[in-house]
Write a structure and sequence with these properties.
binds erythose-4-phosphate; 8 strands; eight-stranded parallel barrel; 11 helices; globular; 216 residues
Length: 216
């Protein structure tokens, strides 16, 4: 499973990429707005740091506007994936942009029917927002499982990108469900690495080593 981080913060992205386990980045208008920096230099910097795909979202809601913005965004860097919302016009835009060789991440997916249509339209990624479903007492992970199963049944190449992840357990369950990608806040990525027994074990090793006065 690929690991993406869901942030537009350059410090977080540099930190994550430097570890060598971050495969890509997803952004959205809220995350970009949080950075309080001009859009173009910010996303150019992000694209230059990240080795893999960087999702940049359109803000137009009509077909023509999404296509125009999508074409502009795709020219920023080779690793840009245009993000379009899962609406009727968004599906049209996915069909149009993917027909021109522009890769699209279809975002704000909350149902298996939406995901089926998005794959038929030619999306490169589908983003089911599992945390936001959990927030309204629906099991978000069930949607991820359904989409993986449906795509497998028909051999769709659209990758399932588990989004709106809130905890390490979401990451484990997304991997068990067969999601191709999980995108998560930087804080969750840090939680994935930590285990108290690792810290306790390391301390004991180093204490024993120091007591014995051994040299490497
Ligand atoms: C994904 O691409 C979205 O940017 C993101 O995962 C949304 O997460 P949230 O529900 O925590 O805002």
């Amino acid at each position: 499973m690929k690991i993406f981080i869901d942030t537009a913060n350059v410090a977080e992205i540099r930190d994550g990429v430097s570890i060598g386990i971050v495969d890509g980045v997803t952004t959205n208008p809220s995350l970009i707005a949080k950075e309080k920096r001009p859009f173009r230099p910010l996303v150019e910097e992000i694209c230059s740091i990240v080795p893999g795909d960087v999702s940049l979202e359109v803000v137009a809601t009509d077909f023509e506007g999404m296509v125009k913005e999508g074409e502009e965004l795709s020219k920023i860097a080779k690793n840009v994936v245009v993000k379009c919302p899962l609406t009727k016009d968004g599906l049209r835009a996915v069909r149009h942009l993917s027909g021109k060789g522009i890769r699209v991440n279809q975002t704000l997916c909350f149902s298996a029917t939406q995901a089926l249509l998005s794959a038929k339209a030619g999306a490169t990624y589908i983003s089911p927002f599992l945390g936001r479903l959990d927030d309204i007492s629906h099991v978000g992970m069930d949607l991820v499982r359904d989409i993986v199963e449906i795509y497998r049944n028909y051999g769709f190449t659209t990758q399932v990108l588990a989004a709106s992840i809130r905890s390490p357990l979401h990451v484990v369950d997304a991997a068990k469900a067969g999601a191709h990608v999980a995108t998560m806040p930087f804080a969750v990525l840090e939680q994935l690495m930590k285990h108290p027994l690792t810290d306790i074990g390391l301390k004991k090793f180093l204490d024993d080593w120091a007591k014995a006065g051994v040299k490497l």
